[in-house]
Amino acid sequence: MIEITQELICNLYKHCKVTTCHSFRVGNDLCGFGRYLGIENQEFLFILGALHDIGKLEIPQQLLNKKERLTELEYDEIMHHTVYGAQIVQSIPQFPSEFSDVILFHHENFDGSGYYGKKGKNIPLLSRIIRIIDSYDTMLYGRIYQNPKDQYQIIQEIKSLSDVHYDKDLALSYTNFHETKACQLLL
Predict the structure, then answer these.
(1) Cα maximum dimension of the chain
(2) pLDDT value of position 187
(3) pLDDT band with cut points at 50, 70 and 90 for residue 182
(4) Helices (H), ranges, the chain
(5) Residues sharing a CB contact under 8 Å with residue 166, sequence separation 6 or more, in sequence order
(6) What's this model's pTM, rounded to 2 decimal places?
């Protein structure tokens, strides 16, 4: 599983360095938060986090790096990265079968307003977790079209969108996780 993951990540790096760096940070944070929640198998979590956006291999580079506002058609194509990612990991027998659903549904909102309308606890647990971590990282580091925010602003936004975009219990745990990390850095 490690070798095929490395190959996919190398391909993603050649295609879009920004997405690759984001994916590694999501993988690292998924490991840390997973440990905080008591989820075992850190290697599994890291690989899943690192591959959550692997479907962007199928999105044209110029679209991934576009600085202007996306058209509706372009946004639809970007949204398909979850389908492409699910298809990629599903085609590789070394990956656990649950990888494809987690990747497919990582942009679902808790209230059902996400990409595919899956709602609440019907969204796979790891998808709900990645939804929070993915948002956190995107807000912290920004995008070509979006300036970064500071951690306080991000935590407030995550809290304000609990039960809308994010599972309320997981969002609370995630903000506590970050507050615990911040306290540990001060010691």
Answers:
(1) 49
(2) 46
(3) low
(4) 2-15, 17-37, 42-51, 61-64, 72-79, 81-90, 98-104, 125-141, 151-160, 168-186
(5) 109, 110, 128, 131, 132, 135, 158
(6) 0.94
